[in-house]
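BUG: 3D viewer hangs when loading the predicted structure for this chain

Environment: internal workstation, default settings.
Expected: structure renders.
Actual: progress bar stalls at 90%.

Input used:
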Amino acid sequence: MHAVEACGDACFFLATSGCTWWQLPPTFGPAWPTVHRRFAQWSRDRVRWEHDHARRCR
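Structure tokens produced before the viewer hung:
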């Protein structure tokens, strides 16, 4: 799996599971600081999460 996809999957897991950043399971690959940094950048870039979520749930 590509690192960007793994970070996206980790962000969706965090949003739906209620766990905290530092509790992110290592099975996602990237460490939680990496996922958090990407999430923060995507948020600054105004990524349309609902669009990505709909695409992933097809």
